[in-house]
Amino acid sequence: MSKFLATGAVMAFLFAAVPAHAETTTATLTVDKMSCVTCPLTVRKAMERVAGVIKVDVDYDSKTATVTFDDEQTSIDEIANASTEIGYPATPK
Ligand SMILES: [Cu+2]
């Protein structure tokens, strides 16, 4: 019995040590009002501040942002809002 409990405790510890598998989603947004080459940096910083965002690539030429995020922590709409709030209206493609 005590051996069973000890094994259970070890198993629980091992499971707790392994991070829960997070689902990630990659989505593209259209970003308006970018008027110079430093605008994408501003947009990227704003999007990266959203909790759950893993990776942001903003392309000035195509006026798009490609965002990878944990969809249990945030959503594409929240990320779009972060950009819209700083003056660059973003729309999920
Ligand atoms: Cu600019």
UniProtKB/TrEMBL annotation:
Superkingdom of origin: Bacteria
HMA domain boundaries: 25-91
GO terms, molecular function: metal ion binding
Keyword vocabulary terms for this entry: Signal
Pfam families on file: HMA (PF00403)
Listed PROSITE patterns: HMA_2
InterPro entries for this protein: HMA_dom, HMA_dom_sf, MerP/CopZ
This protein's name: HMA domain-containing protein
Organism: Woeseia oceani
